[in-house]
Amino acid sequence: MISVEIYKNGELLKECESIQDAGRYLQQYTGDRFKRFNAIQNGYCYGDIWSYNGASYTFKVSAEFANKRKRQLESK
């Protein structure tokens, strides 16, 4: 498992034990219909920001994991 930090408007909101945990937490916290795994992945791989209801969310994992996953995505 990989730890995921969720930031809301630049402030640490929650540190989750896994990407799945982060998706579930984000869905509950925001009331969104979806778990937004792609937004989380794009956030930690490419620095993308996910905006929802006027708030900006960013995601961080270890640099080693982010680089490995980015290489996997780009090799497809």
Average pLDDT: 96
| SSE pattern | EEHHEEH
> Can you count the beta strands?
4
Globally, the shape reads globular
Helix content bin: 40-55%
First-to-last CA distance:
22 Å
Characterize the largest beta sheet: strand count, sense, and whether it forms a barrel.
Answer: 4 strands, antiparallel
Q: Enumerate how many helices there are, as a single number.
A: 3
Class computed from helices, strands and strand pairing: alpha+beta
Which segments are poorly predicted (pLDDT under 50) over 5 or more consecutive residues?
none
Radius of gyration: 12 Å
Strand order of the largest sheet: 2-1-4-3
Strand content: 25-35%
Describe the structure.
Helices cover 45% and strands 26% of the residues. It starts with a strand and ends with a helix. A 4-stranded antiparallel beta sheet has the order 2-1-4-3. The longest helix is centred in the first third of the chain and has 12 residues.
Provide tags for this entry.
4 strands, single chain, 3 helices, 76 residues, 45% helix, four-stranded antiparallel beta sheet, alpha+beta
State the gist of this model.
The protein is α+β, with helices and mostly antiparallel strands and 76 residues long. The chain has helices at 19-30, 37-46, 63-74, and strands at 4-8, 11-16, 50-52, 55-60. It contains three helices and four strands; from the N terminus they run ββααββα.
